[in-house]
Write a structure and sequence with these properties.
It is found in: Cell inner membrane; Cell membrane. Keywords: Cell membrane, Electron transport, Heme, Iron, Membrane, Metal-binding, Transmembrane, Transmembrane helix, Transport. It is a multi-pass membrane protein. One of its GO terms (molecular function) is heme binding. The chain has a domain of about 210 residues. The termini are far apart. By secondary structure, the chain is mostly helical. The chain has a two-stranded antiparallel ribbon. The chain contains 15 helices and 6 strands. α1 packs across α13, α9 crosses α11 and α11 runs antiparallel to α13. β1 and β2 form a beta hairpin.
Length: about 475
Amino acid sequence: MENLDALLLARIQFAFTVSFHFFFPAFSIGLASYLAVLEGLWLKTGKAVYLDLFKYWLKIFAIAFAMGVVSGIVMSYQFGTNWSVFSDVSGPILGPLMAYEVLTAFFLEAGFLGVMLFGMNKVGKKLHYAATLMVALGTFVSAFWILSVNSWMQTPTGYFLADNGQYMPGDSWWDIVFNPSFPYRLVHTVMAAYLTTAFVVGAVGAWHLLKDRANPHARKMFSMAMWMAAIVTPLQIFAGDLHGLNTLEHQPAKVMAMEGHFDSHPEGAPLILFGIPDSEAKTVRYAIEIPKASSLILKHDWNAPLAGLDTIPDDEEPPVGMVFWSFRIMVGIGFAMLGIGLWSLWGRVRGRLYDMPMLHRAAVLMGPSGFAAVLAGWITTEVGRQPYVIYGLLRTADAASPLDAPAVAASLLAFILVYFTVFGIGVWYILKLMGKPPHAGEYGVKRGDTGPIRTAGITPGPAQNPGGEEALPSTKPEREQV
């Protein structure tokens, strides 16, 4: 281990933990909103199918939410252990933003989650629905602050460099929170979360339709998911285009790597569909390209000039190969989602949405596509800003803690073992729940037979019978259910 690079290991560890973490918020953000829609439709229409689906997905949400919280807490410790220099110089700006996330989103979710999970039979319908809305709002607010932090690292504004080397907030916090890339990243990421959830819901509905086309619950969830795919996917593609234009303005090197433009094109740049980037030779080998199409997309002009990586110093170029391919994976999945949405519209118009097994099989295969897309998008965003951790201000190599490689390697191995074990079991259980068909009279989240555990105060001792032995209760408390 002494021959390993501590910086590389620290980067691998953060990439591993944040990739694991990203899956769960991407799912729970969309699922919380879906639960709010289901409960709202039940209150409005009185149809039991919406309540059954609410309880069905509530169990899955509880597990995904818990794994997201746990993985997020573990990930945050790395700021102090592996990236202490980064934490020191950016703490006056990023510290308050992270605290706002805890004080608003986390407290909001924590305050209403218990009511949402266990309170349907204990509070009124409207109050329970308000709790569900608050949890959904909390997931969005959490995304708001976290994406504001990440966006400031991409496009830092509203700061000044103090004498002690720290970046300090300037005259207005609004310039920091609403930095140039934040609105675009927020819209793009939140819609990605909604699509991720929609395709999971659609896959589960399609899976059960393949087994029983008459299942009304499977029909309803599949129909709702396909509406999301058909409506939101075009909006997401449009938002992605706007986000790309914003990135071209503020992070041109990232776009150059995404497009594979090693050379400048003064009279219109081609759109390279596929190829093998060669950073040593400064070219894309075996390129399949459309002449001048990249200038049309990025500048809305066939003949608009586009600068290439030849205008960037070699030590400031991002890893082109990784960014080039992750971007294409993300875009390819996006157009595949659009195809599924249009296919479902065609079937809906023909009145055969529930009688198209090929569409259902395709929807099952597309179930994990949202997770792959958000991971590819994250790789594009984060690797594309390298070699900087704060774009243009702090290099990643200068942000790491002064640790030896064996220390980082040991924690990395521990993370890999624990994550694959614990979260592997969690994902297995979620898939097991999804494998069961939804039905009338769903129970939802169940409490234990013995009720809450007392952790403080005086606990009454067991009753004694005249013979001095503990008296056994005649009946067990009834199981409380949502």
